[in-house]
Design a protein that fits this description.
This protein is of the alpha/beta class. It folds into 2 domains: about 200 residues, Isopropylmalate Dehydrogenase (3-Layer(aba) Sandwich); about 140 residues, Isopropylmalate Dehydrogenase. It is built from 11 helices and 12 strands. The strands form 2 sheets. It has a 10-stranded mixed sheet with strand order 2-1-3-12-11-4-5-10-8-9, with helices on both faces. A two-stranded antiparallel ribbon has the order 6-7. Helix 5 packs across helix 6. The structure holds 1,4-dihydronicotinamide adenine dinucleotide (NAI) and magnesium ion.
């Protein structure tokens, strides 16, 4: 029996509605793979911020440091600035736990139309650098309120940081179809991006089984729309990867199904698993959030904890629901509630035994 303790942070809005779906799926596969999940739930959220002035307690990170993984629903509330929820919770977890890989798989499932023509069989993964790059704290604002007011923000790229993300992406490409695409902008951003290109090329050369293509981010966005089937693994800096992965999620039929993992590959710290979507205040509380993003994210958690077979069963059940049934939440054109959709996935999981 494998026992895993999961730190659950349902968060705000639909985060609270999709997290139970993910747990139900985890528990259903666990029982037949000799796995037992124990959950410790934390109320860290914008709701907590509004009540106490902090997204999480001062010793928050210490409380979850020893867990095997973290599952986060979504955080965000209309009355709380987004930088508060991001810098008060998500970014400290990603940085302090050295979750330098943000992994975002994209697949076009049969039965779930892409907004694009000819997108059948699209299956690629964005590997986003998650702790440095453009999202740095280096900089400041000066002369506030005067005509000469200025704001400076430095992008930070380190050899260690680019090397490890490139190595991760190369190893992933080697396990998949062997094609790596690196997102760059070395024609316009003349210091950091040529450095990124050099280090990525160096690491790709050390993986002869992987072919490397380099694309400027603007052209790459166009290609992801015009010919998404050509991609296998895309490695990108923090900002480029953030934008690309939302674009790619749209290509695959919507943000409601997109999963993400924030990984500490060395496993010195817990990794964090979160659907790509936010707290969706526009539909929160109505019980119609699409739980697929959270369920697919649960599959990534299973895979990370060494249960590849269980993860594959979850993905098979998801694909079967989309291919063989008309059960869909409203974002995908249906009328099913979160609970109905989750029950349908659980029923197919039962069949996948
Ligand atoms: P969002 O992802 O919450 O919503 C965008 C649109 O997609 C909305 O119309 C929403 O109803 C729909 N949508 C998203 N997920 C869905 C699902 N599972 N099922 C059905 N429909 C879904 O992004 P938005 O509106 O930009 O942000 C709302 C709040 O969430 C903000 O406070 C933002 O900061 C936060 N946010 C948090 C994230 C996180 O926790 N990692 C990520 C993105 C946004
Ligand atoms: Mg984003």
């Amino acid at each position: 029996m494998h026992s895993h303790r999961i730190a659950l942070i349902p968060g705000d809005g639909i985060g609270r509605e999709v997290t139970p779906a993910a747990c139900a799926v985890l528990d259903a596969v666990a029982s037949r793979h000799g796995i037992r999940f124990g959950y410790d739930e934390f109320d860290w959220s914008c709701t907590r911020y509004e009540a106490t002035g902090a997204m999480m307690p001062d010793d928050g990170l210490d409380r979850i440091r020893a867990h095997d993984a973290i599952f986060l629903g979504a955080v965000g509330a209309p009355g709380v600035p987004d930088h508060v929820s991001l810098w008060g919770l998500l970014i400290p977890i990603r940085r302090q736990f050295r979750q330098y890989v943000n992994l975002r798989p994209i697949r076009v499932f049969p039965g779930l139309p892409s907004p694009l023509r000819d997108a059948d069989g699209v299956d690629f993964t964005v590997v986003r650098e998650n702790v440095e790059g453009e999202y740095s704290e280096v900089g400041g604002r000066f002369g506030t309120g005067f005509g000469e007011e200025l704001a400076v923000q430095e992008a930070v790229f380190t050899r260690a940081g680019v090397t490890r993300i490139a190595d991760y992406a190369c190893a992933l490409a080697a396990r998949r179809r062997g094609h790596l695409t690196s997102a760059t902008k070395s024609n316009g951003i003349v210091h950091t991006m040529p450095f990124w290109d050099e280090v990525v090329a160096e690491r790709a050369a050390a993986h002869p089984e992987v072919s490397l293509a380099r694309e400027h981010i603007d052209a790459l966005c166009a290609k992801v729309v015009l010919d998404p089937g050509r991609f296998d693994v895309i490695v990108a800096s923090n900002l480029f990867g953030d934008i690309l992965s939302d674009l790619a999620a749209a290509v695959a039929g919507g943000i409601g199904i997109a999963p993400a993992a924030n990984l500490n590959p060395e496993r010195e710290f817990p990794s964090m698993f979160e659907p790509v979507h936010g707290s969706a205040p526009d539909i929160a509380g109505t019980g119609v959030a699409n739980p697929l993003g959270a369920i697919w994210t649960a599959a990534m958690l299973l895979d990370h904890l060494g249960h590849a077979e269980a993860a594959a069963e979850v993905e098979t059940a998801m694909a079967a629901v989309l291919a063989r049934t008309a059960v869909r939440t409203p974002d995908l054109g249906g009328t099913a509630s979160t609970a109905e959709f989750t029950r349908t996935v659980l029923a197919h999981l039962e069949e996948a035994k």
